[in-house]
Write a sequence for this structure.
C-alpha cells in the first residue's frame, strides 16, 4: 500500500476546516422525534442518570460537546456550575450564540421540551433555558489527545464529567483512546462520576457530504480500560442502531455508561 491508498484518520485539525456545525445539528439534533433513535435514547438515559439524585455536586465538565447542549439539560438541576468544551472553534461559537440567545442560534426548544416531559413537568422549558444560561460558566477549547485537555489552563477537578461522541472521533487508535480516558479521569475528583456516551463498532460517519473517521470500539474494551484506570462501572445501556440510523454511519449500536472513580 502506498501513501495515496492509506486512509487518514480525521483528527481534530481536519474538523477545524471541514466540520459543518449547522449540518450536524440539522441531521442529528433538530428534534427528538425526527425518526432516529440516538437522541431519544440518550435523552432518556441521561434523564434516568441525573434524576436518581445520586449524582450531583458543584461542577460538571462536558468534554467534546460539539455544537450541542443536549447532554447537559437533565444535569443542569444537579450542579452549580457547568463547563462545556470542544476542539472545534465553530462548535464553541454556536454554543456561545445560544447562551447569549442571539438571533439565528440553534433551536433547542424541541429537545428541552422532550426532557421536560420525561421529568413529568417539574420544570418548564423556559426555566430550563434560564437555568442553563445561568450555570454554564465557561465554554472552553479542549483537546483530549493532550495530557491536560485544557492546556495551558489548569481545571479544578469536577464532581462529574460527561462526554458524548467525542473520544471515538478524536482518537486515531486504541492507545490514544486509553490515554484520553486517563487524561479525563485526572479531571475528576476521587469518587466523581463519568458519564460516557458513544457508538460501538463504527468506522465512519457523514456530516453532509463530508466523511469523518471513527475509532472502532467494543464494549468490552471500553469497560476494561475504565477498570484499569480505577473506575467502578455502575450502569451500561446499549441500543442497536436501526437501518434508518445507518444512513449517516456504519455504527452497530449506541451506548450509555456510568462509572465512578474509586482510585
Amino acid at each position: 500500500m502506498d501513501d495515496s491508498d492509506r486512509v487518514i484518520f480525521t483528527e481534530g485539525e481536519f474538523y477545524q476546516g471541514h466540520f459543518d456545525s449547522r449540518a450536524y445539528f440539522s441531521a442529528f439534533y433538530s428534534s427528538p422525534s425526527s425518526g432516529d433513535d440516538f437522541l431519544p435514547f440518550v435523552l432518556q438515559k441521561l434523564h434516568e442518570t441525573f434524576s436518581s439524585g445520586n449524582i450531583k455536586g458543584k461542577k460538571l465538565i462536558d468534554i467534546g460537546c460539539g455544537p450541542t447542549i443536549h447532554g447537559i439539560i437533565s444535569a443542569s438541576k444537579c450542579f452549580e456550575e457547568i463547563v462545556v468544551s470542544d476542539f472545534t472553534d465553530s462548535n464553541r461559537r454556536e454554543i456561545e450564540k445560544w447562551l447569549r440567545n442571539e438571533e439565528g442560534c440553534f433551536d433547542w426548544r424541541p429537545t428541552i421540551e422532550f426532557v421536560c416531559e420525561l421529568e413529568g413537568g417539574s420544570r418548564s422549558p423556559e426555566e430550563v433555558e434560564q437555568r442553563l444560561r445561568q450555570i454554564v460558566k465557561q465554554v472552553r477549547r479542549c483537546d483530549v489527545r493532550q495530557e491536560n485537555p485544557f492546556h495551558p489552563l489548569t481545571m479544578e477537578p469536577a464532581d462529574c464529567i460527561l462526554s458524548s461522541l467525542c473520544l471515538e472521533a478524536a482518537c486515531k487508535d486504541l492507545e490514544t483512546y486509553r490515554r484520553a480516558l486517563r487524561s479525563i479521569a485526572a479531571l475528576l475528583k476521587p469518587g466523581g462520576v463519568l458519564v460516557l456516551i458513544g457508538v460501538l463498532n463504527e468506522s465512519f460517519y457523514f456530516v453532509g457530504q463530508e466523511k469523518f473517521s471513527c475509532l472502532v470500539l467494543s464494549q468490552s474494551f471500553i469497560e476494561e480500560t475504565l477498570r484499569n484506570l480505577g473506575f467502578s462501572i455502575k450502569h451500561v445501556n446499549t441500543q442497536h442502531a436501526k437501518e434508518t440510523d445507518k444512513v449517516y454511519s456504519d455504527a452497530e449500536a449506541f451506548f450509555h455508561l456510568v462509572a465512578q472513580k474509586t482510585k
